[in-house]
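#random but structural
TW: two for the price of one
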Amino acid sequence: MAEGYADLHCHLLPGVDDGAKGPDEALEMARALVDLGYSAAAPSPHARGEYAPRPAQEAALEALRESLAAHALPLQLHANAEHFFFEEGFLEQVASGTVRKVGGGRCVLVEAPYTAPLPTLTDLVFRMNLKGCTPLIAHPERCMEFERPGRARAAVDAGALLQLDVGALTGRYGRTAEKLARQFLEDGLYAVAATDLHGPVGARDWVGRSHAALRKCVGDAAAQRLLGHNPHALLRGDGLDG
């Protein structure tokens, strides 16, 4: 039997950022993920000043774990957060070892600006690697910096991992994001694929269609690797074998 999927980028925790608005929404999102084949998720609340602070987010994770158990939903939850390269104090957390990582591994989920350049990208990747952190860059296909030819490859060569937002494959984020996502897939640049799920409405439909698009692009075996094998490996802190 194939290993279940693991979602390393979703906003499942209720009331802490722009994701699930409350416990009922969080449960419905979890049900959708289970129905779509996920056995694990690492909810990734925004680690930014305008959202709930870290202690509140960590408490929400524990509460959701208890709720899933009470409702017999077989979705294992792991620690995580979505950081921003330019957030005040982010690099200090990396340097001090207090930054939140993805599960039990060395990856740190981080996003680049959507509409601004990031000329220091490879330097940031290098600095994080020096401190024992591997940047897992969220949805590069949606970020301006990666529209520049060669930038995605440069980030990977510098030591970053790239995370595909599966919705990009169906045009959910526009034509440019779809084109880049398909190109990065063809070039073999993505390490994992994730949902970036923010709410339950239509989740089964659009995520299911996105999975189908991914399988059509790369085949069943590669899709399983991006959705299941590799995310689980990163959660454990294992290396990737392809």
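TW: number two ↓
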Amino acid sequence: MTAHEAGAGATVPGAGRNEFGHIESRGIDFIPDHERRGRPRELFTVWAASNVNYLSIVVGGALTTLGLGARQGLTVLALGCTFWVLAAFLAVSGPSAGTPSYIITRSMFGIRGNRLLAGLTWLLYVMFEALNLSIAALAAFALLKFLGVTVALSVRLAIVVVLAVVTLGISVYGHRTIVRLSTGFALVVTAIGGMLLFFIVPRLNLQFVPPGAPHGAKLLGALFVGFTVIASGPLSWFGGADYARYLPRATPARSILLWSTLGAVVPAFIFGVIGVMAGTIVDMTDPQASFIAILPHWAYLLFLAVIVVGTTTSNIMTTYSSGLILQAAGMTASRSKTVLFDGVIAVAIASYALFISSFFTTLMNFLPLSVALFAPTMAIYVCDILLRRNRYDGLALNDESPGGPYWYSGGVNRPAFVAQGLGTIVALLCINTPVFVGPVSAALAGADLSALAGPGVAAAVYVCLWPRMAPAGRKRP
């Protein structure tokens, strides 16, 4: 019996609550039809709110620090941002399944196998949360210092606590509250971003080429490294279904894809352009400090505010999805409790990085390696949606019993893990990060092909092994 046939009352006991200003009661469980509402266009601001942030400026500016000229940087930025289409495509599975992304992936990896994958993903997500919290806190420290406030240790601790409370508070309230607030967040930060463009565009030099720019094979290597840097953002975002699962089942997939793509691509590209253009004017190895040279004092204060608000908004999305992933990994607690647990861990890591050690730099060096895990997983997810024609049984996906349709062999779908493993291995062979350079990348003058080779191999293997999957797991509800 499919979820549709089961009807609205065939899920967990009691009605779920998902209203603005109230704590969302649902977690990874199936959302029945009578609790679904909303329109796909609301996904635009949800995605936009998580992408109008400082990180997009940083990765845009990183292209010039790699030695790329203005035209080269803008081209690489545009190509890398196309990967947001893949991330947005995952959102179409939300209304179909009525469950979060990391429950839908049970159809690919099996019940037990999916717990392992979700656990690994949660570790990476919590690191991203700590990184975002650290960036927001550093910007807040700089803002107060610029205003002449002495930023003592007690003040710094208070700032971290306030940022954490805001992030966790909104994440705990959940889906409807995030959707409602995302509109305001996106509008405010986008307006300030437009102000930054106003000061930067008149000074833009499209003919800019940094001193000592690479040529020949080294230039090709820098272009591919830059491409992977840009693509690593969308390749690490699996939360599309988390926010689309409350939409009515009959919501057109093309509308979900359109609004999600626009909400992701437009702000990521615009803020990336700000970073590239700023890189033609100032040294972008430290964007936060460099922008003071091209902005009036009042505008620089707004720029710091963008970092604080934008990064915090992005962190709210990450924390919300991370709490769901923790449930999918096997933590038997309500969504609000997993979010709080998740947040406490992230705050502890961020505090350690900010006040005790140089862990912040180490963390930033290691995170690029995450593309080796995330990119093949995303490729498998996209292929699964296409192979099943986006037909998922939300109730069956929540059936964890041995012998269930997604139990496969001992709770693991081996073909998917073969695809994942081979994709990850190939990605590592082709990757170029501050802490590890794969042999293929080294042989190609540092060219990083991990964002193309890893998911390409994973997709090809998954499609080839699809006929070998258990019939129950392959069937389209």
